[in-house]
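The protein record filed below.
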Amino acid sequence: MTLPAPRIIFGFIAIVCLAAMAAALYMEHAMGMEPCPLCVFQRIMVIAAGLIAVVAAIHGPGTLGIRVYSGLIGLAGAVGIAFAGRQVWLQNLPADQVPACGPSLDYLLDVFSFAEVLQMVFSGDGTCAEIHWVFLGLTIPGWTLVGFIGLIGICLLLVVTSKSQQV
């Protein structure tokens, strides 16, 4: 089986990330689903992966570049897995163990350092445990988790199959 050129794969990753962000923004603005802090950080990782993929698709890198871009996209995916996994875990807690709702992300960023905000966001709160939408048994962060896992799989495939000066 022959894979498409890495440039095409990076372009595909960028388009999928764009589609994921379009869906997230549709859910927020058209369906009225306000994103929780963990959702916002998952979006940041989708945007980061998409931007790296756009640069990689434009660049058309050789073997080393394919590995570097794939590693960076994979890193964004791994961080995204941490945020999405944490939210899936919070959503599956018994109701009596769900943390209380906290302040908004805007307030946290105004009052605390970024490191403190990351720690608080990763701890999660009650808003992150709310389930607003389910498709085929998975919630939004569940699907995001699947997407990040797929993203890392594609990046690993690119690294393993990259040959010298593949364009």
The beta strands are 134-135, 138-139. The radius of gyration is 17 Å.
